[in-house]
Amino acid sequence: MADIYVFLGPPGVGKGTLGDLFCAETGAIHVSTGQLLRDEMAKHSEIGIQVKDLIAKGELISDDVVAAMVTNRLGEKDIQSKGCLLDGFPRTTHQADMLDSILTETGNRLAAVLLIEADRDMLISRLTSRRVCSNQACGAIYNINSQRPAKEGICDRCGSKLVQRSDDSESTAIERLHVYDVQTAPLIAYYTASGQLVRTQSRDVDAKENYQALKTALA
Ligand code: AMP
What we know:
The protein is an alpha/beta fold and 219 residues long. It has a domain at 3-119 and 184-218: Rossmann fold, CATH 3.40.50.300. It contains ten helices and eight strands. It has helices at 15-26, 33-43, 46-57, 63-74, 77-82, 93-106, 120-128, 170-184, 186-193, 207-218, and strands at 2-8, 29-32, 84-87, 108-117, 130-133, 141-143, 162-163, 197-201. A five-stranded parallel β-sheet has the order 2-3-1-4-8, with helices on both faces. Strand 5 (130-133) and strand 6 (141-143) form a beta hairpin. Helix 1 (15-26) packs across helix 10 and helix 2 (33-43) packs across helix 3. 34% of the residues are buried. Adenosine monophosphate (AMP) binds at residues 11, 32-34, 37, 54-55, 58-61, 66, 88-89, 91, 95, 167, 176.
């Protein structure tokens, strides 16, 4: 039975970056539902074509589609042995109920739900200045203000071109934060009630400093 950690928090709070640091240290597998969906879009699969417009508008994909992807991924062997960090799922209370069934079905257990919070102005600025590696297999994350690559527009890790995500424009970032407030924030009360919520604050400092705060919260 593997440990599953959930990282919960608004878009731009650093779930991807902190998740990478967490997985590098613990050996857990980083499963981002946003990334799984972007992979489907890159492959032009049926799901990819179906979700493209909703993602570009900053809206949520249906619970059933995302839950099916998570069920498949959590059932795979690497996760059974190493555990996993779920980044971006659950995003609604219905998905949280679905996660319970998925964990039972795949033989895993919820170790903790970590809520990462941050100042709202900082989130908009972080989202619009975020750049990501265009190489799907790399997926490194940068920020043109605070986490610049050594060579402008080029990934330090793999040398591929850096791009802006289609949903990181200012208007879509604002919509995504609104969607978070309405559909995802109720999970805070949900997991507080179940006694599984741990909180940490993401500040405008180096990612490693925020990661230390996260580890202290989880300890
Ligand atoms: P993220 O990479 O987590 O910011 O997700 C990017 C986009 O993918 C979101 O704005 C949603 O459109 C979609 N998405 C990711 N995870 C979920 C989820 N659990 N439920 C519904 N839509 C999701």
